[in-house]
Recover the amino acids of this structure.
């Protein structure tokens, strides 16, 4: 007895008719029969071959006329494929059970919310602990970042006048050289963790990716500003690189996020605002303003997931504190912020060589340093450190700023 | 390798053969059967090694099965098929021509060129040529046979020869081409054949493809266990499903030898196997 039927007309299985057969078979139980009728010249051949490959049985009913008729008995293989499959969380992160504590390696690259076939070999992503990586704010920050992307070619007034003296231009070039080096570290650190992060934490993955894209753009605009009126860039010092190397080498996600985003990029925010306010030319001011806008998001994400992590793991703060101390000890033998960068900042803020201008520039850089310290202490307090702890830890932060 | 290890011989017709048999090895190990495999670059070497006793189970192409079946008695032995894939049963081959061309029947091939696969391919050469002969045209005499020899020795397991034959047909280099029925859909999906471009001028009778071959002196206990474990492999089981997908089956079936009649007739008519049989028996 035939329970279901499908009419293929003249559509061949070599033209997509198998979709109609599949749809009809889905409507009957395993072992159930679908009567297939069609006029495509090779239907008898293709239906045999297709059913053999799919594990269905075919019994020809009418092979005499222009219309071929056969009964297809549904096999169990397709059902078998999805036995034991599991749903990998849920698409909407706010749904109950959407984000699991430890997504398994067997979910691999599957989209969160997809149904994953059992038996996959899996992919090992070492960063797979929700407590360590997740922040509810990630989706919002990612959306904000995606909306705030800017085009270096059009967002910056590259042709703005620059009437400042040549030595002030040299100072700008030195500061840009320093910024590029620091932003390179700020690109490499999230990029490394991005490749280790379980894709289940989709929003965090997207946010880290766009953070890398932000840094790539910063490197571009700082390079372009540095080379705008000079053939070569400025100086790169041993001390600066040693300081950044301790960031790049930090293997722990939480500690790296703390050192880079909360302390390093947080401190950099003050520096970029300083350049926005004190640079002599509109090009440099705009480069700094746009970069600061992006860096503020990086700091916000770092604070968000670390605050959440600290709330769930009371010992985290002690680990963060000892990371700052360790880094301080590691950098004890280096000179801190290099003289070239310090002097360049003073001259840049002064805008010229007269004594009054230099006094003003020097005072601005001293104020910058105090502003950086105050900002660090405020962020440390947001992570739950006491005023005393915040003050002590801030003072141990690298003198190289990042 | 322990004396008790059951060893299988197979032909490395593709790089995927290694993960397939590594996967089977792990499956048998999980079920307590000591198993290993050896690979050969061609079926003749595999069959000769099986006759020498180098391994116990041969994963034989249909032609390799006939080679084993015919050579074994010359050494006082008999061969039998213990298992095969569901997809090895009841295949057919097609002879196709261009839908817009003059060839509509086998008889129209007289004086024309017929593209076939590798010389030793049962599905794309030997069985379809037997069909042409049975229809009254002598291949090589009444119709020119154009071979597409991709990886001879692998008995057409490599589909390249068939694909080349069909490409030659579409390019007008031959007037008809031979292929396995299932490849009609495969080549359409690959875009090698546009829908409606070909006309099927003949379909051979049904035949069987590969089987697991053993000789009568194989260790009965472990062969029985091997067969039992093969037949127990279920597509529902995620730990073996990828192996079944790679090997192209949904379920193993008990072996049968009733599906080799067409191929047997083909090699009898041409004497195709005689030189090899003579050498092996010597």
């Amino acid at each position: 007895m035939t329970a279901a039927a499908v009419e293929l007309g003249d559509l061949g299985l070599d033209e997509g008719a198998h979709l109609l057969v599949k749809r009809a078979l889905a409507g009957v139980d395993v072992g159930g029969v679908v009567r297939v009728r069609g006029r495509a010249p090779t239907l008898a051949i293709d239906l045999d071959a297709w059913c053999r490959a799919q594990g269905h049985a075919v019994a020809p009913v009418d092979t005499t006329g222009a219309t071929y008729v056969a009964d297809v008995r549904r096999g169990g293989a397709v059902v078998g494929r999805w036995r034991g499959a599991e749903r990998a969380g849920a698409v909407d992160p706010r749904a109950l059970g959407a984000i699991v504590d430890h997504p398994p390696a067997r979910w691999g690259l599957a989209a969160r919310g997809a149904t994953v076939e059992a038996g996959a070999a899996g992919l090992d992503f070492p960063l797979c602990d929700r407590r360590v990586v997740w922040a509810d704010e990630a989706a919002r920050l990612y959306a904000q970042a995606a909306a705030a992307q800017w085009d270096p070619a059009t967002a910056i007034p590259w042709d703005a006048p620059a009437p400042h003296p040549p030595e002030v231009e040299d100072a700008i070039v030195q500061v840009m050289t320093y910024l590029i080096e620091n932003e390179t570290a700020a690109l490499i650190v999230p990029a490394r963790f991005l490749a280790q992060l379980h894709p289940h934490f989709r929003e965090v993955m997207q946010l880290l990716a766009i953070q890398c894209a932000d840094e790539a753009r910063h490197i571009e605009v700082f390079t372009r500003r540095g080379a705008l009126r000079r053939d070569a860039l400025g100086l790169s010092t041993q001390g600066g690189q040693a300081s950044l190397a301790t960031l790049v080498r930090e293997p722990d996600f939480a500690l790296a996020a703390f050192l880079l985003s909360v302390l390093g990029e947080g401190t950099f925010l003050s520096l970029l605002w300083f350049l926005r306010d004190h640079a002599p030319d509109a090009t440099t001011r705009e480069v700094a303003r746009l970069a600061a806008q992006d860096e503020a998001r990086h700091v916000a994400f770092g604070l968000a997931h670390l605050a959440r992590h600290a709330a769930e793991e009371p010992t985290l703060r002690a680990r963060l504190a000892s990371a700052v101390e360790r880094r301080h000890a590691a950098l004890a033998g280096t000179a801190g912020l290099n003289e070239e960068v310090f002097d360049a900042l003073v001259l840049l803020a002064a805008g010229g060589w007269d004594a009054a201008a230099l006094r003003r520039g020097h005072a601005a850089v001293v104020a910058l340093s105090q502003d950086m310290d105050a900002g660090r202490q405020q962020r440390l307090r947001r992570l739950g450190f006491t005023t005393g702890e915040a003050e002590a830890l801030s003072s141990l932060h690298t003198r190289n700023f990042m | 390798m322990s004396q008790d290890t059951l060893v299988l011989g197979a032909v490395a017709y593709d790089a995927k053969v290694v993960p397939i048999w590594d996967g089977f090895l792990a499956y048998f190990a999980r079920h307590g059967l000591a198993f290993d495999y050896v690979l050969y670059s061609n079926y003749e070497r595999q069959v000769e090694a099986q006759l020498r006793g180098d391994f116990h189970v041969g994963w034989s192409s249909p032609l390799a099965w006939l080679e084993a079946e015919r050579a074994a008695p010359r050494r006082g032995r008999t061969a039998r098929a213990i298992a095969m894939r569901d997809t090895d049963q009841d295949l057919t081959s097609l002879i196709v021509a261009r839908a817009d061309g003059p060839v509509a029947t086998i008889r129209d091939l007289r004086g024309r060129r017929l593209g076939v696969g590798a010389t030793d391919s049962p599905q794309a050469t030997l069985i379809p040529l037997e069909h042409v002969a049975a229809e009254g045209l002598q291949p090589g005499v009444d119709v020119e046979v154009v071979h597409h020899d991709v990886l001879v020795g692998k008995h057409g397991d490599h589909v390249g020869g068939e694909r080349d034959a069909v490409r030659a047909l579409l390019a007008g280099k031959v007037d008809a081409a031979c292929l396995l029925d299932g490849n009609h859909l495969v080549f359409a999906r690959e875009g090698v054949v546009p829908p409606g471009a070909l006309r099927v001028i003949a379909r051979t009778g049904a035949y069987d493809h590969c089987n697991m071959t053993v000789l009568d002196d194989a260790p009965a206990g472990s062969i029985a266990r091997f067969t039992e474990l093969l037949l127990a492999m279920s597509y529902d089981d995620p730990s073996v499903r990828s192996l079944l997908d790679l090997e192209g089956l949904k379920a193993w079936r008990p072996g049968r030898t009733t599906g080799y009649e067409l191929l047997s007739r083909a090699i009898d008519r041409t004497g195709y196997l005689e030189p090899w049989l003579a050498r092996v028996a010597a």
The interface with chain A takes residues 86-87, 90-92, 94, 181-182, 184-185, 188-189, 193, 195-196, 199-200, 203, 234-239, 241-242, 248, 250-251 of chain B (CB under 8 Å). Residues 93-203 of chain B form a domain with the D-Maltodextrin-Binding Protein; domain 2 fold (CATH 3.40.190.10). Chain B has two domains: 6-88+208-281, 93-203.
